[in-house]
Amino acid sequence: MKSAIVILCGGGPAPGINTVISTVAKVFLKSGYRVIGLHGGYKSLFSDDPEMIDFDFAIADDIQKQGGSAIQMSRYKPKDSEFNPRFFIKHNIKLLVTIGGDDTASTANRISTYLAQSSIKIQNLHVPKTIDNDLPLPEGSPTFGYYSAKDEGVRIAQTVYEDARTSGNWFVLSAMGREAGHLAFGIGAACHFPMIIIPEMFNKTQVTFDRITRLIISSMVKRKLLGIKYGVAIVSEGVFHFMTDDEIISSGVNFTFDDHGHPELGNVSKAHIYNMLLQHKLKELNLNIKSRPVELGYELRCVRPVAFDLMYCGLLGYGVKALFDQGISGAMVTSDPVGNCKPLYLKDVADANGKIKPRLVDMSGEKVKMVFNEGVQYLCEDDYEAARDYLTNPEDYDFKKILNWE
Fold first, then answer.
1. What average pLDDT values come out for the chain (406 residues) when binned by 10 residues?
2. Hey, which of 7, 9, 203, 266 has its CA 20 to 30 A from 214?
3. 132 tagged catalytic
4. CB atoms within 10 A of CB 239
C-alpha cells in the first residue's frame, strides 16, 4: 500500500488554511505520497466511519489562494480513552499534519505522547493557526491568518470610524480574541482609535464591566475637552476570559448556559453587552452621548489571505515536508522573519496538563507603551478641573487609576 499522510484542521477558520493544505499536498504528492484530508477533525480521526478527501494536484492548486478551508473543521477534543491506531494502520499513515490553534496543538501533543507510548511510528507535525496570534511562537513570528484578519478588520473599522465622524456619534467595537488582545490592539492601533481595551491591560487589577465602561467614558470626556464629539472604542472579547461567571451574569444579559453551568458567550454579541452597559452609565451621568455596537468576528475568519499570509503559509507548508524528512515529530512548524523553518516542540511550550500556554500582548513592549502613552486618549489628573463640567468625580475616570497603573 502507498505511504500516506493525513491532514486535519481544528478550531475555527483563519485565512491561509487552504494555502497550507495546498502546499503540504503538493510537496508530498510530488514525493509519491497519498494525501488524505480528514473532515471533522479529531472526532473523525478516531471514528469508525471517517469522512475523507483524497487530494490531487488539481484540487490542491485550485484552493491555494482561497479563504476558508477545503477540509471541514471541528472543535472536538477527544478524551485519551478515545485514542486508537485504526485509521493510521488502515491507511498506512506516516505523518499526521494538524492545523489549528492552542486547543488543536494541545490535543496534537497528547496524540504524539500516545503514539510514542504505543510504539507506533507515525510522525506528527502541527501548523500553528489562529487569527488571535496567541500561540507561543518565536519572537517576531505571527500565527498565520492574523495579518489577513487584521487587514480586513482595519478595513471595516476605518469605515466605522468614518461613520462616527460623519454622524457625530460613538461606536463600540468588539474584536475576536479568546484570551489575548492582539487583534483588538492591532486594529485599534492601526486606526488610531481613542480607546483600546484588551485583557492584558488589567495586569494590576481585576477585569470588570464597570472598569471597561469607565475607560470608555474616560476617552469620551477627554475627546469632549478636545472639542471632538465622536470616536470609536475597541474592546477585545478576551476580557471575558478573565471575568468570573458572576461578573458576566451581572451584565443583565439573558444567557443560555452549557452543561457545566457556564454562560454560553458564543450566543451573544459582546459589542452589544459593552454598549448596553455603557449607555446605562451615560444616562446615569446625564451625558448625552450616543453609541452603537459593532461586532468584528466571523466576517474576518474566511477572507482571502493577504500576500503576507500567502507567502508565510507556503513556507510553513514546505517546512512540514522539511521537518518530516528530518524525522522530527511532536513539534509545531515555525518560520522566522528570514524564512528559516524550525521545530518548536509541543512539550516545551505546554504546561503540566499538556495545554499549550498562550502568548499574550506584552504590556512592557515599546510598541504597546507608545500606543497607550501617545495614541489613545483618556483623562488624567491635569484634566480634572475641565472634566468637572461633565463629571462630578473625574478622578474615578482617570485611565491610570482605573487600571491601578499608578
1. 94 94 98 96 90 96 95 90 89 93 80 82 90 85 93 97 97 91 96 97 95 97 96 94 84 75 77 94 95 92 95 96 94 89 85 79 94 96 96 96 93
2. 266
3. yes
4. 26
Residues 226 and 337 in one domain: no
Q: What CA–CA distance (Å, rounded) separates 256 from 247?
A: 15
**Residue entry with cell 482609535:** 193
Reduce the DSSP state of residue 174 to 3 states and report it.
strand
268 and 295, same domain (yes or no): yes
Amino acid at 248: I
Amino acid symbol at 199? P
Catalytic residue among 102, 103, 132, 309: 132
Q: Is residue 258 located within the same domain as residue 125? A: no
Phi/psi at 110 (nearest 5 deg)?
A: -65, -40
Instruction: Yes or no: say if 73 and 11 are a contact pair by the CB < 8 Å rule.
Output: yes
pTM above 0.85, yes or no: yes
Say which residues have a Cβ less than 8 Å from residue 122's Cβ, sequence separation at least 6: 88, 93, 94, 95, 96, 115, 329
- The total number of structural domains in the chain stands at 2
Tell me which residue range forms the domain holding 63: 4-145+305-348
Q: How many residues does the chain have?
A: 406
